[in-house]
Amino acid sequence: LLSPDGELGVTIFEEMTTLAISTGAINLGQGFPDEDGPAEIKAAAQDAIAAGANQYAPGKGIPALREAVAAHQQRFYGLAPHPDTEILITTGATEAIAATLLALVQPGDEVLTFEPFYDSYGAIIGMAGARHVTAPLLAPDFLPDLAALEDAFSNRTKVVLLNNPHNPTGAVFPEHVLAKIVELAAKYGAVIVSDEVYEHLTFGVPHIPITSLPGAAERTITISSAGKTFSFTGWKIGWLSGPEHLVAAVRTVKQFLTYSSGTPFQSAIAVGLALPDEFYTGIAQTLRHKRDILAEGLRAAGFGVYNPRGTYFINVDTAPLGIRDSVDLARRLPGLVGVAAIPVPVFCHPEGAERTRSLLRFAFCKKIDVLEEAAARLATLK
Ligand code: PMP
Ligand code: GLN
């Protein structure tokens, strides 16, 4: 039996949110916004419920949402996935990741991720019985060393799973890094799985979907989610796209995980995806401003700050404050100053955990006065 005290125990997000609630701390740990997304998307969900869209959706997703995902990819990236065969709606990106790995990976295969890695990657790779190989992302820019990346590939590499923009570091991979990943995936016959849930949250740098690079599309599954772009993390609507044979394999697994995903929320997210460009630029601008406010506050509080180019997370180094162990600090911080954060080593294997031992992640998808209050509280640590 899996035990709450075992390796897969309770996720760090649940642990830190529970601690934030019990201590009354400001929760800059788990990444969720403290304001809901656009009113018209909410109204669309309410309308769909009132109109009776309350029974199972088709397993691959309602046509309106699959068409909206295709139109969104055309509008932003000039891509043209077929809504019937090359797109699958999932219960959040989390299910997309799980179904994809379970579909593609056999026991003994290797899955390569960057490190630090989002927590569900390690858990699902383990459940699939695969070996988890990592390539480090190193401070200050958290981009991979390309020679080390090549060393991490082998003939057993079945999947290279990347996350771009990257949680927890906030890195946005430039084109030459993506091109190297495509080159190595082709050389070793690996499928590329690209988790792009933060695709619209970049600050002054473009998001490049890896599937848009030459030679990538035929071997790439791209994953995204409504949670981050539209600030409805609780609705758990995600999607993936890729070549027909790969999407069909993932659809086969999805049938037996959830069968289908929340019907009225799918209608509402179809409305969201069609929002004008200003919505998308607006959310990035707002978050950039929030990033700058929190970064300034964290610097003033004495942390070493790594300014992210994407996502809604900032990493800091606690070493300048004389604090070496961010896991220990994260457990004490809510009681100490009334702020919760996530320690970066939990996104790593032991060697990576040692390398990131003094790194702590703060979420800045919060109201400005909340960020200012959190910064003021953190300043009392000095
Ligand atoms: N991938 C990454 C990198 C994430 O940060 C998250 C958290 N939102 C997810 C996947 C899961 O997304 P969802 O909530 O849509 O399942
Ligand atoms: N993606 C969110 C984060 O990184 C958390 C999602 C979750 O709790 N699983 O903070």
TrEMBL record:
<dbReference type="GO" id="GO:0030170">
    <property type="term" value="F:pyridoxal phosphate binding"/>
</dbReference>
<dbReference type="Pfam" id="PF00155">
    <property type="entry name" value="Aminotran_1_2"/>
</dbReference>
<keyword id="KW-0032">Aminotransferase</keyword>
<keyword id="KW-0808">Transferase</keyword>
<dbReference type="InterPro" id="IPR015421">
    <property type="entry name" value="PyrdxlP-dep_Trfase_major"/>
</dbReference>
<dbReference type="InterPro" id="IPR051326">
    <property type="entry name" value="Kynurenine-oxoglutarate_AT"/>
</dbReference>
<dbReference type="InterPro" id="IPR015422">
    <property type="entry name" value="PyrdxlP-dep_Trfase_small"/>
</dbReference>
<dbReference type="InterPro" id="IPR004839">
    <property type="entry name" value="Aminotransferase_I/II_large"/>
</dbReference>
<feature type="domain" description="Aminotransferase class I/classII large">
    <location>
        <begin position="25"/>
        <end position="378"/>
    </location>
</feature>
<keyword id="KW-0663">Pyridoxal phosphate</keyword>
<dbReference type="InterPro" id="IPR015424">
    <property type="entry name" value="PyrdxlP-dep_Trfase"/>
</dbReference>
<comment type="similarity">
    <text>Belongs to the class-I pyridoxal-phosphate-dependent aminotransferase family.</text>
</comment>
<protein>
    <submittedName>
        <fullName>Aminotransferase class I/II-fold pyridoxal phosphate-dependent enzyme</fullName>
    </submittedName>
</protein>
<dbReference type="GO" id="GO:0016212">
    <property type="term" value="F:kynurenine-oxoglutarate transaminase activity"/>
</dbReference>
<dbReference type="GO" id="GO:0005737">
    <property type="term" value="C:cytoplasm"/>
</dbReference>
